[in-house]
Amino acid sequence: MADNTPRSTSRAPRTAPDERMRDITNAARRLFATRGIARTSFTDLAREVKVARGLIYHYFPDKDAIVDAVLADYISEFVRAVEEWDAAREPGNIDKALKDCITVFRTHMRSMDPMHTELQRVENTGLYNRFLHRAVTAIVDCLELTTIEAYAARHKIEISHVRETFYVLIYGLVGLSRNNPAVGDDVLIDITRQILRLPPARLTTLEPRHTPHGEPPMPG
Fold first, then answer.
1. Out of 18, 110, 128, 204, which could bridge 119 as a Cys pair, Cβ 3.0 to 4.6 Å?
2. What are the pLDDT digits (tens) for 156-180?
């Protein structure tokens, strides 16, 4: 009599293609930051992900494709952070928005420190310039659809060539903060305010205290 009982198999469940690509990209991100782009091979990646070397080629034809995927990850994270910052903004509170924006900027610049060091190598200069252009363009695209549009609904935009101005601003802030890490947040905020011609910071003033008889208050 035939045994129709399903037999168990020892074959491991397959990983979905998107998940596998994510695993490879994450591994490349770790290895690029610790070993460097040039010193990371497909064999290193296969060992890190625990797959056959040929599978890496199935998803990424060459190292340039992997580098692009890693850099796209950094860009996507930054854009998501900008979207979250925009969603959390208090309408009309420009001072807080600027402060929070610079905090987001600093956080993501620090998160890129290991990779940034690698990209700054002479042999990677062209790659870094392309990455920075892609990153700044993606952030400006995001701002055009969110913050800039919302600001224009409440205030008059005092600058011309809005998109180009934001591009120059973000590009410049990256260069300044990288080449002068000691520059303060207050300086970055002031530069942003000046370039975008935003209203000056609101000053909190205290009304003078008076005594019941109108005499000046005693020093306290």
1. 128
2. 999 999 999 999 999 999 999 999 9
